[in-house]
Amino acid sequence: MQVLKAHKVTKYFYEPEKFQVLKAIDLSVSKGEFLSLVGKSGCGKSTLLYVLSTMDTDYEGELEIAGQRLTGKDQNQLSKFRNAHIGFVFQFHYLLPEFSVLQNVMIPALKLARYSPHEIEERAYEKLTMLGVQEQALKPSNKLSGGQQQRVAIARALINDPDIIMGDEPTGNLDSYNTHVVFDIFNELTQRYKQTIIAVTHDEEFAKKSDRIVEMSDGKIVS
Ligand SMILES: Nc1ncnc2c1ncn2[C@@H]1O[C@H](COP(=O)(O)OP(=O)(O)OP(=O)(O)O)[C@@H](O)[C@H]1O
């Protein structure tokens, strides 16, 4: 089953001059696949991820995720779609420091309101337990180590059972121990739970161990 399909995705930047950053990109991602997106700095990885994540709508071509055609939807529809279907893990985790770990994980689910607040709290504990940070649940998020904060960010990305997790340098800010931890978590999510993951990475070791490496060069997929 295909979770994501991009067809002939093309994008230009116009400042400081017209420049084609994405050149007719075709990409299909299957359920349970762990895909690393690699390539030299400036080849267009982050720009592509931004389009695939529906945050950038200024492109030509077609994008479909979880059977829904997303090209042409408005920002309000896309924001709801993202919250329900896409989990994000960034280099910098963007946890809210004034909230507890538990609250940070619960926020996307409270917004979605698919479950009651009590059920959401239980689910948040489940995800934190899965990631081995349940004992930190009631601490303010900024009192955790970098590696622990990234695990909380992954728990938050998982809270709405997304069809796909997208990561932009998800281990970019971590030491080698925590890079391994995050890789193992991603690997287990795909193996055991059939989670689909796309991660932009500069880390060759990380990429090599994933299921599939997609390499970009000069706005195109080359392998
Ligand atoms: N808002 C923008 N306006 C104009 N040019 C941009 C803009 N954002 C990115 N670019 C250019 O588009 C190209 C691709 O950028 P992008 O950030 O996608 O590359 P990348 O492969 O993710 O690089 P890195 O690995 O360094 O993060 C680069 O040449 C960059 O300078």
Describe the overall structure.
By secondary structure, the chain is of the alpha/beta class. It has a single domain (2-221), classed as 3-Layer(aba) Sandwich (Rossmann fold), CATH 3.40.50.300. 37% of the residues lie in helices and 27% in strands. The chain has helices at residues 45-52, 75-85, 101-112, 117-130, 146-158, 176-193, 204-209; strands at 2-13, 19-30, 34-39, 60-65, 68-69, 86-90, 164-168, 196-200, 212-217, 220-221. The strands form two sheets. The protein has a six-stranded mixed β-sheet with strand order 6-7-8-3-9-10. The chain is globular and about 50 Å long. The two termini are 22 Å apart. Bound molecules: adenosine-5'-triphosphate. Residues 13, 15, 21, 39, 41-47 line the site of adenosine-5'-triphosphate.
In short:
Keywords: ATP-binding, Nucleotide-binding, Transport. By secondary structure, this protein is of the alpha/beta class. It has helices spanning 45-52, 75-85, 101-112, 117-130, 146-158, 176-193, 204-209; strands at 2-13, 19-30, 34-39, 60-65, 68-69, 86-90, 164-168, 196-200, 212-217, 220-221.
